[in-house]
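Lecture 7 notes: from sequence to structure.
We start with the chain below.
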Amino acid sequence: MNNNFLKAALVVAVLGITACSSEPAKTAKKEAEEAAKKAPAGPPEPVTGKTAFYEMYTPARAWAADNLPLSVKSGEVPGIKNANGKAGMWTAIFASPSLKSAATYTYAVTEAPGISKGVRAQGTTPWSGPTTAAMTFQLGDFSVDSDAAYMAAAAKAGDWLKDAANAAKPVSFSLGAATRFPAPVWYILFGDSKSGFAAFVNASTGTVIAK
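Predicted structure tokens for the same chain:
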């Protein structure tokens, strides 16, 4: 009887110790989670074209269920540095064959004078249909994001970017489709059209297309 009593007492003691030791761990974890929630958010950062595109695609679907993208372009927000295929602001244009109109949306990671954070509808304009220079494209043809397109274009522009002055120049992005290309393409421009370097990147395969 004494041995059984001692064994039972030992089991109770072990369970008590385990419960006591796990309780501080749970408390510490909870406190850490609460502290993380209360911690101030970091500064806004630029996003890829695809990230911004799908933020704008949701309201575009509400506008017209048959909408198709026409273009996606990068923009700038004061205080946000565009880098590595990411931008602080993007603009997308969607076309609706049934409504015969095109709707423009913008997405920005933060507010600035004249710029609203998040998605903003910029209105609609009449649209008579695709042209050889500006065609609509399917979502499935847009699989390569702007950061991957940037890496491909930067590799092509390697010699040009070796110049520190060139490397410091801004980079802009635009996505679109035209009859001369087999798929939608990213047009990446390092610098400007007069003294910069431009590259077309297939938005379906990620390969650089010769001009």
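Points to note: The chain has two domains: 1-39, 47-209. Residues 5-15, 17-21 have pLDDT under 50 and may be disordered.
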